[in-house]
Amino acid sequence: MFFVCVAACPTGVAHTYMAAESLSIIGESLGHEVKVETQGSMGAENVITEEDMKRADGIIIASEVAINDKGRFVGLPILECSVSDPIKHGEAVFEALCEAINNG
């Protein structure tokens, strides 16, 4: 599956990038393709494109703050969690979204 993700924390530094790295590494280790947009102190990086959205099977939003342009994700399965969840429980995050997708 192809997942797009957004990681964001209040200061937009450490936890944002730790969550992004965890989502990428764990998702790929589970056999998924993953693209992670970070929204932090340097603005949005690795921005999810319209083409990414057309291919996406689901969305993971790992955030402690409101994210920019959340409306672009309407119509796709979304899992929202704490920014620390992918760091501490990465496999469970992907398993929960896959279960939601498979169960409709």
Give a description of the structure.
The protein has 104 residues and is an alpha/beta fold. It has a single domain (2-102), classed as 3-Layer(aba) Sandwich (Rossmann fold). 38% of the residues lie in helices and 27% in strands. The longest helix is centred in the C-terminal third of the chain and has 18 residues, at 85-102. It starts with a strand and ends with a helix.
Helix count from the secondary structure assignment: 3
CATH H-level superfamily: Response regulator
CATH-defined architecture? 3-Layer(aba) Sandwich
Briefly, what CATH class? Alpha Beta
β-strand amount: 25-35%
Count of folded domains: 1
- Tell me the radius of gyration: 12 Å
End-to-end Cα distance, whole Å, is 15 Å
Say how many strands there are.
5
Order of helices and strands: EHEEHEEH
Helix content: 25-40%
Organism: Photobacterium frigidiphilum
EC number: 2.7.1.202
Keywords: Kinase, Phosphoprotein, Phosphotransferase system, Sugar transport, Transferase, Transport
Protein name: protein-N(pi)-phosphohistidine--D-fructose phosphotransferase
